[in-house]
Write a structure and sequence with these properties.
It catalyses: Endonucleolytic cleavage to 5'-phosphooligonucleotide end-products. The protein is an alpha/beta fold. Helices cover 41% and strands 14% of the residues. The strands form 2 sheets. Strands 1-2-3-4-5-6-7-10 form an 8-stranded parallel beta barrel. It has a two-stranded antiparallel ribbon with strand order 8-9. Helix 3 crosses helix 4.
Length: 298
């Protein structure tokens, strides 16, 4: 079965995120290693790294830990200052992941800002390669970190809503072996991939197989969608309460091709620490696995 978990807050320390995911029985974890809305970030201290690594070791699912890049990063930007900042910020994030022992880093492909898809993809690829090379000079452990391009809803000039665009980056990169894909169900649905039917589900993964390949899939973001099919608008909803619906998630969770992959919730947290909402969504996902196996929960 897949490893199910959620994005967790690091309030109180990075190791607290591990305690939170463990408290709700999660087996996969995503975090922001630093504030996702600021360019400047302090390096990870030795004390932070040791506390995080010890917590992960005690939890036991270190291969299923991912970090999400800063929302400010736009490697496809035509503006030199933003591109420079983005390269530096990604290199620093890679260095933090290396020090913390986080194996997966999720990256938004960025936006071409009106200059065209082809030019945007070329800048994205070149700046991504430069960041990977810069990161190696900061921390040699970054070479163990796989960067996962996340598919997008396709709003505005955002890149990555088509699988062909993701494939082009991985094909053209000097560091293709370091790259994979994080597939977000909400983003795919908003981009026009209808996961609700057997035919639509099969067509979606056939399209992946025919572009960058199923073997590049390393992580799923499991999110229902507030908006409609093909809306190009990214709005996450609780599992089974949005326009994707339960059957799509039942198919995904029970797809034998993905049984060993981490699947992480990014659903709304609500008030408080959000753990109760995550607990409910995880229970919904686990029930879909049990029902498919013929063991319906009471």
């Amino acid at each position: 079965m897949p490893f199910l978990g959620a994005h967790m807050s690091v309030s109180g320390g990075l190791h607290k995120a591990v305690e939170r995911i463990s408290a709700i029985g999660g087996q996969a974890l995503q975090v922001f290693t630093r504030n996702q809305r600021q360019w400047k970030a302090a390096p990870v201290t030795d004390h932070e790294a040791e506390a995080f690594r010890q917590a992960v070791q005690a939890w036991g699912y270190g291969r299923n830990v991912s970090s999400h890049d800063s929302y400010l990063i736009n490697l496809a930007s035509p503006q030199p200052e933003i591109a420079d900042k983005s390269r530096a910020a990604l290199a620093e994030e890679l260095a933090r992941c290396g020090k913390l022992g986080i194996p997966l880093l999720v990256l938004h492909p960025g936006a071409h800002l009106g200059t065209g898809v082809a030019d945007g993809l070329a800048r994205l690829t070149e700046n991504l390669d430069a960041a990977l090379e810069q990161a190696a000079s900061l921390n040699k452990d970054t070479e163990s970190v796989t960067v996962l391009l996340e598919n997008t809803a396709g709003q505005g000039s955002s890149l990555g809503s088509s699988f062909e665009e993701l494939a082009e980056v991985m094909t053209c990169s000097r560091h293709s072996a370091r790259l994979g894909v994080c597939l977000d169900t909400c983003h795919a649905f908003a981009a026009g991939f209808d996961l609700r039917t057997d035919e639509g589900y099969a067509a979606t993964f056939a399209a992946i197989a025919g572009t960058f390949g199923l073997e590049r899939l390393r992580l799923f973001h499991v999110n229902d969608a507030k908006t409609s099919l093909g809306s190009r608008v990214d709005r996450h909803e609780h599992i089974g309460q949005g326009n994707i619906g339960l059957e799509a998630f039942r198919r995904l969770l029970n797809d034998a091709r993905f049984v060993n992959l981490p699947m992480v919730l990014e659903t709304p947290k609500g008030s408080g620490d959000g753990l109760e909402q995550d607990r409910v969504n995880l229970e919904t996902l686990h029930n879909l696995l049990e029902q498919a196996a013929g063991h319906v929960s009471p």
